[in-house]
UniProtKB/TrEMBL annotation, chain A:
It is a multi-pass membrane protein. PANTHER family: INNER MEMBRANE ABC TRANSPORTER, OLIGOPEPTIDE TRANSPORT SYSTEM PERMEASE PROTEIN APPB. Residues 93-304 form the ABC transmembrane type-1 domain. This is Peptide/nickel transport system permease protein. It comes from the Bacteria. Pfam families: BPD_transp_1, BPD_transp_1_N. GO terms for biological process: transmembrane transport. The chain crosses the membrane at residues 9-29, 92-120, 132-154, 185-204, 239-265, 285-308. GO terms for cellular component: plasma membrane.
TrEMBL record, chain B:
This is Peptide/nickel transport system permease protein. Pfam families: BPD_transp_1 (PF00528), OppC_N (PF12911). Gene3D superfamilies: MetI-like (1.10.3720.10). One of its GO terms (cellular component) is plasma membrane. Its main location: membrane.
Amino acid sequence: MSTYITKRILYMIIILFAASFLIFCLYALTPGDFITGNIKLTPERKAELREIYGLNKPVIERYWTWMKNAFHGDFGYSLAQQKPVLTLFNQYIWNSFLLAIISTFLTWFIAVVVGVFVAYKQYSWIDTFVMLFLFAAMSIPSFFIGLFLIKILAVDWKWLPPGGMLTTGSNATGLAYVKEVIHHMTLPVIVMTLLGVGSLTRYFRSNMIDVIKQDYIRTARAKGLKERKVLFTHALRNALLPAITLVGFELPALFGGSLIIEKIFNWPGIGQLYMQSFTLRDYPLLMGFTMFIAILTVIGTLLSDILYRVADPRVRL
Amino acid sequence: MSTIHAEEAGAAKAVPVRTAPHASMWRQSLRRLLKNKLAMLGFAVVAFMFAACFIGPLFSPYTDNKINMAVMNNAPSLKHWLGTDALGRDVLARVLLAGRISLTVGLASMVLSVFVGTLLGVIAGYYRGVVDQLVMRLADLLLTIPSLPLLFIFGALLSEWKVPTDYRMYIVMLMLSIVGWPGLARMVRGQMLSLREREYMQATVVLGLRDRRKLFNHLLPNLVPLIIVIATFNIGGAILSESVLSYFGLGVMAPTPTWGNMIDAANNMIDFQDHPWLWIPPGFSIFATVIAINIFGDGLRDVLDPKQKR
């Protein structure tokens, strides 16, 4: 097991190196940088700035500098915001996390409850109905459902604010602040939950259906246990166990924010920060973000594989 | 299996042994698929969308994209079922024409990524060793980089390089298949690794069959059901990805309409609030097409690949 993990971590590092080089080249390849796009600067000033930021050096050299600094915990300096990338991340990431953790919690909760219920009622009309709804949830274009709900709930009916985290110009504190944030995050949380709930509920449903067919469930019923106890004590536990492998895959989503949802709802998270920087070609930030997600993805996959073994000791890693 | 009638089983025996079980498996699957009402409904909707987009515009008097200032931003009416846009163009005709592009991009990028993914997956799983390492490490690398930022960079590159808008559509297909193939290759490889250890593959070794025959006559036919199912879901995914890219102005761009870039109208505050017929119909078209494809794909999976059910 420990040799396996060592090997995996080594491989992870190599893959991340390769990924960082690829990401760097792609961003460096994109013509037009932050300075070219700024029409206020004179050509001389532009050249001067390029010199300062090292943009006139060959790609390999720039990559080398970037990597060297990254190892010292310095992911560069945002050109547009004039702040270190890590400081900016720290500033925005918790807003993304807030959105993600609540919608992930809701998604899992709904998926488990509905999944168990529907598995129990397999092939009934309510099962078909729920499955149709889940298919719908899996097929919605995320940006469109966001726009659609803003139009209906925020613009037409004025139930909820259309976007942002606080009302413009608000300086609420304490409980009023919390209330305002909750009010603003309702719509994005609804959309994110809706988008995630489809596949996860189907996953729990099919797990549960497999478990219900097992002999020990028949035994539990034969012992004369109440159906509720059979379902929630004997079956659910075994149906939930394989799902812990999914926890790892949630990692990038939890901290990486959502590019589309945050952009649509103007939520001040890390995804929104990325989208802003993208138009400005603020490449240290873009690279930092992409690398950050790549690291989370790799760690998440490793975590999943390890948890897979924890869930099922028969699996040899 | 109880659906096979006695006389059919008898008929199957009479036919030469090599073709009979093969033909009857597909026929059985088709029969079970036809019985699945939900899946057939999905298929009907997909077929309708294709027919409407490819044949529908032929019956519309407004397909010439002519600018008509007399009917700017009209709400839906009998004359223009889905209203008109800021240039007086009929929205319904534009939605249908956009559908041609969106559906084509979805289909074509599916074909490309399924082709590349299957080919590389099969080669990696069959030959193993160095080839396997090479292909799978490349797939791992591509899977590590988040796909949306990757697609955004590609899209920005296209804009900077001033790729003509007519060509962008083809490059978007390529882009989508670049991010689409690794997952597929990994799945096909996994399947290959399990298939090549089966008894019937050992039999082919004993018989001294050549690699090509083993691959094309014995392994591929057993992969086809899985590939068909993945390919179906893949079309839906590609349509969604294309719409996201085009909505953010990084995919297919105006004047070529696609469902995604038509929703771009929602970025304009006035159109968003007061002219919802500009951006809601394309959104619903994406939704209807993708949900129908997914339902049909699920029915297909029940029939072709029951073990893969998740």
